[in-house]
Design goal:
- 43% of the residues are buried.
- The chain has two domains: 165 residues, Isopropylmalate Dehydrogenase (3-Layer(aba) Sandwich), CATH 3.40.718.10; 163 residues, Isopropylmalate Dehydrogenase (3-Layer(aba) Sandwich).
- The chain starts with a strand and ends with a helix.
- Helix 6 packs across helix 7.
- It is α/β, with parallel strands linked by helices.
- Helix content is 44%, strand content 17%.
- It contains twelve helices and eleven strands.
- The longest helix is centred in the last third of the chain and has 27 residues.
- Strands 3-2-1-4-11-10-5-6-9-7-8 form an eleven-stranded mixed β-sheet, with helices on both faces.
Length: 333
């Protein structure tokens, strides 16, 4: 695709910014010459970091030293004014200057400022926070991960449509397989909202995705389903549990293989397999949550990731725009 993708970048959010953000843009630019980065932040610092490392025609810096900090409450971040790097980046998408916005800053503030600036897609009541998770066969889209604590069956149905559309945008050759996260796989299990959503999805005839019923927490990674739908309360707990488990496994494995002479010998013999395993669980590969339901896509990078992780989020931005996510949701809704 030769047309230019324009990404609005909040350069001041997250740990070690703006250096991390600019390092990520420099790295991403090496492999993506058809991307224009509109960068919002402290011009003097950014100019020094980016100088001669990204083609001049591929970026523009919008100067602002005001920023939303990680300590701000969601509303406090929004009240900091319309000259923060986060607000200006989102506004540039609202004004159609850019195709998509990305920030590693305060998640709550990003959601509030996005909702203040951007309209909802028609017939969708709530935006959802979605992300990519690894499974045995590839990747899954999981939503909602914390934007909405309480959800109606209409909300969960909308999340199913949006999640399937997102999956199709990112993986155009694959069929989205949708399931509802529940406490059992039997039709009678779960609360009334889940059961009602099951009925709606089961009765809807569509070629856009396959509905496979319920999925339990212990089956999230087995790959039979690639779009997992839940309310934000349950989804956030599932996300944090999965992240904690992955960190526990990698650190315990490291300890076991570096603890004694036998461990060190066996780790040398298995070094390539261990590297593959570690790479599979590397959270930087799955960095980039997406607020969907708004009429422009908003991507949230993990605040603590490094420049490789942020660069992967920039990749997600490109794939969302190439895959026409918003048009897909509008058509499917």
């Amino acid at each position: 695709m030769s047309s230019i993708i324009k990404i609005a970048v909040d350069a001041m959010g997250g740990d070690n910014s703006p250096k991390k953000i600019i390092d990520a843009i420099i790295y991403h630019h090496k492999f993506n010459k058809n991307v224009f980065y509109k960068i919002f932040g402290d011009q003097n610092t950014i100019q020094t970091l980016i100088q001669n490392k990204v083609n001049k025609e591929n970026f523009e810096i919008i100067n602002t030293i005001n920023k939303v900090s990680s300590e701000d409450s969601p509303l406090g971040g929004a009240k900091k004014g319309k000259d923060t790097s986060m607000w200006l980046a989102i506004e540039s998408v609202k004004e159609k200057d850019c195709d998509i916005v990305i920030s590693a800053g305060n998640t709550g503030a990003l959601l509030v400022i996005s909702k203040l600036n951007l309209k909802m897609i028609e017939n969708i009541d709530k935006p959802a926070l979605s992300a990519l998770w690894p499974n045995k066969k590839g990747m899954s889209v999981v939503l909602d991960l914390g934007a909405n604590i309480e959800c109606s069956s209409k909300n969960l149905f909308d999340f199913s449509i949006m999640g399937a559309s997102l999956y199709k945008s990112l993986y155009p050759t694959e069929t989205p397989k949708v399931a509802l996260l529940n406490i059992g796989s039997e039709e009678l299990k779960g609360n009334e909202t889940i059961k009602e959503t099951y009925k709606i999805l089961n009765n809807k005839k569509t070629d856009d995705y396959d509905f496979l019923g319920y999925i339990e927490g212990n089956e999230l990674m087995n790959g039979t389903v690639n779009v997992i739908v839940s309310d934000g309360f349950t989804g956030n707990i599932a996300l944090k549990t999965a992240e904690g488990t992955a960190n526990f496994i990698t650190s315990e494995l490291k300890n076991a293989l570096s603890g004694n002479f036998i461990g060190k010998i066996s780790s040398l013999l298995n070094i390539s397999n261990l590297k593959k395993f570690k790479k599979r669980l590397d959270p930087r590969l799955y960095n980039g949550a997406i607020f969907i339901g708004l009429d422009s896509p908003v991507v949230k990078s993990h605040g603590g990731t490094d420049y490789i992780g942020f660069s992967n989020s920039l990749d997600v931005c490109c794939r969302i725009i190439k895959g026409n996510l918003i048009e897909k949701i509008k058509k499917n809704i």
